[in-house]
């Protein structure tokens, strides 16, 4: 199995606060990875480190075995669309295609023109005059035409209407299958992620909470509901992701570690979104390091 993106005890600190800490991942090539976490969890920080835009404070990151910041050859294997999609607004779409062709040795102009044609985006239009959603589409087309092996997308679908979002993600899935690309996609649109991704990286408060196959994520958790109880006994066996209590009842979302349990608990399979929300709802705080 080829590893597309590997991190080992990776950390990034801004002044006193860790934006990412103790992050160890081995993302297999050819997967579509959902990068999920609440605001400020460290998703953009991880993507910026992976593309070499920022340097680790601790640990290491490599893309196909090489440090992205050190080796320009590695950069040609990576496509990145940042959260604010920085396109040159005064240029036309055709100008961007010409630049793309000049700068990227593996540029696929036919692919770019076909996809833009399908999206009805006029080549002579200035980028600044396109809608936010059209700009997002153009940014994706430019990245795909570069024919990278790893694509990193930071909240790419936020500006798209539901139909455009579906088409965008379909294009992404097709490209992954056709070209064997690996995609790492951060988004808050949990339903969309569940539909297109087959691997999950869950971050909260600068730390990786879960990394693995979508199936393991979806099937490896249970919701336990029972009379109000202390959770220590359960927590000795399973990993309690989130606990809520009312006067009479306790609800636990747990990551299974072995078989289920005690007849006192009513056991249910939680949905994907329920699991995600449980991880997001964990009260965690990024560590501060005295300077
Ligand atoms: P969102 O979903 O809101 O985009 P995120 O998961 O992408 O959030 P990051 O942007 O990686 O989160 O930020 C992680 C933490 O690092 C936050 O606490 C943020 O305030 C902090 N941070 C990020 N960039 C900087 C910076 N350049 N200087 C100082 N702190 C930063």
Please tell me about this protein's structure:
The protein is elongated and about 65 Å long. The model has no long low-confidence stretch (mean pLDDT 88). The chain has two domains: 3-215, P-loop containing nucleotide triphosphate hydrolases (Rossmann fold, 3-Layer(aba) Sandwich), CATH 3.40.50.300; 220-280. It has a six-stranded mixed β-sheet, sandwiched between helices. It has a four-stranded antiparallel β-sheet with strand order 11-12-10-13. Strands 2-1-4 form a three-stranded antiparallel β-sheet, with helices on one face. The chain is built from ten helices and 13 strands. With 291 residues, the protein is α/β, with parallel strands linked by helices. The structure holds adenosine-5'-triphosphate. Adenosine-5'-triphosphate binds next to helix 1.
Topology:
Blueprint: E1 3-14, E2 17-28, E3 32-36, H1 43-50, E4 58-63, H2 72-75, E5 78-81, H3 93-103, H4 109-118, H5 132-145, E6 150-154, H6 162-179, E7 182-186, H7 190-196, E8 199-204, E9 207-213, H8 214-219, E10 221-227, H9 232-237, E11 239-245, E12 249-255, E13 266-268, H10 272-280
Parallel strand pairs: 3-7, 3-8, 5-6, 6-7
Antiparallel strand pairs: 1-2, 1-4, 8-9, 10-12, 10-13, 11-12
The structure holds adenosine-5'-triphosphate.
The site of adenosine-5'-triphosphate (ATP) has 10 residues, from helix 1.
- For the record, what CATH class of the largest domain applies? Alpha Beta
First-last Cα distance: 41 Å
Order of H and E elements: EEEHEHEHHHEHEHEEHEHEEEH
Give the integer mean of the pLDDT values.
Answer: 88
Within CATH, the superfamily of the largest domain carries the name P-loop containing nucleotide triphosphate hydrolases
Please indicate the count of domains. Answer: 2
Q: What's the CATH architecture of the largest domain?
A: 3-Layer(aba) Sandwich
Oligomer: single chain
Strand order of the largest sheet: 5-6-7-3-8-9
Largest sheet: 6 strands, mixed
Q: Report the radius of gyration as a whole number of Å.
A: 21 Å
């Amino acid at each position: 199995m080829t590893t597309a993106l590997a991190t080992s005890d990776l950390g990034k600190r801004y002044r006193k606060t860790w934006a990412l800490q103790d992050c160890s991942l081995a993302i297999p090539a050819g997967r579509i990875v959902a990068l999920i976490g609440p605001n400020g969890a460290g998703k953009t920080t991880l993507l910026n480190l992976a593309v070499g835009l920022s340097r680790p404070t601790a640990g290491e990151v490599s893309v196909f075995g090489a440090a992205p910041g050190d080796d320009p050859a590695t950069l040609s294997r990576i496509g990145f669309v940042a959260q604010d999609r920085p396109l040159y607004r005064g240029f036309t779409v055709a100008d961007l295609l010409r630049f793309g062709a000049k700068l990227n040795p593996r540029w696929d102009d036919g692919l770019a023109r076909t996809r833009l044609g399908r999206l009805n985006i006029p080549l002579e239009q200035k980028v600044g005059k396109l809608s936010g959603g059209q700009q997002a589409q153009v940014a994706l087309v430019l990245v795909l035409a570069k024919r990278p092996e790893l694509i990193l997308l930071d909240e790419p679908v936020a500006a798209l209407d539901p139909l455009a979002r579906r088409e965008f993600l379909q294009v992404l899935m097709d490209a992954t299958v056709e070209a064997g690309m690996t995609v790492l996609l951060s988004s808050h649109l949990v339903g969309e992620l569940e539909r297109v991704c087959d691997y999950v990286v869950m971050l909260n408060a600068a730390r990786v909470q879960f990394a693995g196959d979508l199936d393991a994520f979806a099937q490896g958790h249970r919701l336990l509901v029972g009379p109000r109880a202390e959770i220590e006994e359960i927590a000795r066996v399973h990993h309690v992701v989130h606990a809520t209590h009312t006067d009479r009842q306790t609800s636990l979302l747990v990551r299974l570690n072995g078989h289920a349990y005690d007849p006192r608990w009513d056991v249910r399979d939680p949905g994907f979104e329920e699991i995600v929300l449980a991880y997001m709802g964990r009260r965690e705080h990024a560590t501060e390091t005295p300077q």
